[in-house]
Amino acid sequence: MDNKLIVSSSPHIRSKEDTSYIMKQVLIALLPATLAGLYYFRVSGLVTILACVIGAVGSEWAYCKITKKKSTINDLSAVVTGLLLAFNVPAGLPVWMCILGSIFSIVVVKMLFGGIGFNFLNPALAGRAFLLASFPVAMTTWLAPGSNPDAVTSATPLSYMKLAGAEGMGTSSGAVDKLHDAGISIGQMFMGNIGGTVGETCALLLIIGGIYLIYKGIISYVMPVTYIGLVFILTFLLGGFNAEFALYQTLAGGLLLGGMFMLTDYTTSPMTKKGQIIYAAIAAIIATCIRLYGGYPEGVSYSILFANCLVPLIDKYVHNRVFGEVRK
Q: Which residues form a coiled coil (predicted)?
């Protein structure tokens, strides 16, 4: 049987952008938040970032070498995965844990499924979930920002809000009071001078990075705005119409990081605009439910991973109208 190359009718969209170009733009967008992580967490932050990035690149190189496939590290996707994994773990996490998480992200989640473009879960978030399930104490031990590398903070803003609920202080007003008592202000959260993972603390620089990606056309505004905006609206409504509580929830944790840099991953998000709205809305509802009603203070990672699993179903049933289609 002769093999036939079937080309669909025009118009065809051509682009000079390749994977390495896209990954370079993502790295540029992540640079401000990376510098903030280094500023606030000093040597501990640097070691964590280097361990995750080197672990990711090294494991992808080794996998290609062992399986005798062409090395794919030049597309920089492994660097992005390693950096995003570092952004999602506490500064000072033991180096071997960082490397183990990177190996899981690259080998198990990405390469075993065929490499970039074939994984159905976001590798960095899957690596974070793996580390949290395996080493919960280490993954919830936070360094306080500042010059003292040994200073440990007892809780993140989300932990304080969850603690307020456990102490019967109410859903919103008690949580806000708890943050005020701890000396955590909106301004501190906006600038990043709080406990948390390496890359999630500085809201301002994450927003700048996200805007850069939208400006360059690397991502669409649809998913970040739907996800982050809906979480704000839901926490406002479910928190007793407390705008300050909703703002704290929006700036806290990995909501901005996840919404702009991981929810928007090309491979694990829907192809159509309508599908992307549905996908982001599902993730927002799950994140809000985990934060407000679950036993764990943060729900961003699990919300995105769960939504990733629904992408094939969304793409199957949500379609754009075909150009030139004639309705029956």
A: none
Quickly state the pLDDT bin for 151 (edges 50, 70, 90): low
Whether residues 278 and 167 fall in one domain: yes
Instruction: Using pLDDT thresholds of 50, 70 and 90, give the confidence band for residue 323.
Output: low
Residue where a domain terminates, one of 113, 139, 165? 139
Residue with tokens 């300050």: 244
Name the phi and psi angles at 134, rounded to 5: -85, -35
List phi, psi (to 5°) of 197.
-75, 170
Report whether pLDDT(8) > 50.
no
Which has the closest alpha carbon to 279: 312, 247, 235, 252? 312
CA distance 42 to 164: 31
Are residues 168 and 123 located together in one domain of the fold?
Answer: no
Residue of 134, 129, 51, 138 lying closest to 96 (CA atoms): 51
Beta bridge partner(s), residue 248:
none
Number of domains the chain contains: 2
